[in-house]
Amino acid sequence: MTNNQRVWLVVLNWRNGEDTVACLQSAYKEGADGLTGIVLCDNASGDDSIDRVMQWASDNEIGVESYDWAEERFNRSVNHTHCSPTTSKMPLVIIQTGGNLGFAGGNNIGLRYLQQFCNYDYAFLLNNDAMLTFGAVNDMVDRCERHPSIGMCGCTVVYHHTPTQVQALGGARFQKWLGRSQHIGAHTSVNAPRDEESVEAQLDYILGAALMVSRQCLEKIGLMDDSYFLYYEEIDWATRAQRAGFKLAYSSRSVVFHKEGGTIGSSSTGSKRSFLSEYYLVRSRMAFTRKFYPYFLPTAIAFTLAQGARALLARDFKRFAVRLRAIVGAPF
User: Would you state the torsion angle of the CA atoms of residues 207, 208, 211, 217, taken in this order, to the nearest 10 degrees?
Assistant: First the structure.
């Protein structure tokens, strides 16, 4: 790793212990040489998720420190020994966030923990339904270290169930007038040639499934906006980063396999998307557009209604109603 940079992995779990264990296994097997430690945040799952993780950690002789964020967040006198690891295996810190805080809120707890208690140069947010491949972490750090203005970096995200297809090269481009994003390189072959600079020229945000952020960027722009709960947190964060003078980067050699929507059913196919996912996708689109591009709000609403018309044609009246509620800001 370049200059021995310290990278902490931040993983969020909500009622998906099986995928979380698989994610952690990949981190210890494939990413261990590029990582300093892992912070696992649990959004009040209320199931056996953390029991599964604890059992797996015990079976693999991995030391664990557990905290309740509500009790520990202001207690700087706690001896967080895992933030200065001395063992051969990288440390695992488990934090109970105290509630279902959504994607941004849950990950923000992990980021706050790093800010308060740990020495780090980069934080790497990885979905719990994603898995690292060998060298992915080091290659992303190498890309970031090439230019001091890089604040966020993405990688080649590949569909886990169709490993010959790319989900996204780093992230996505964003159409402001529609409030819609399109993954760069989606469904292309993993073996297709790609140019990092060409991809970076198109990037409007880094895919949150695998997002590395530098300490300098995090300290300047702050945490993610947790008012979204789900979706659009990444583009909000990236927009703030770019307006603060940071660049978005892409590491072509870094590969992460992603199961996509393993927790809440956020399929890229609209008719298969869960109603919860549908609601927050539309609600967050409206919130982001109002915040950054209010003059495009009418066209974003029109586009969202046009998409909903397809649900009406398919006699999926509940899906259309969910969209309407999200547009006007009514509860789910």
Answer: 100
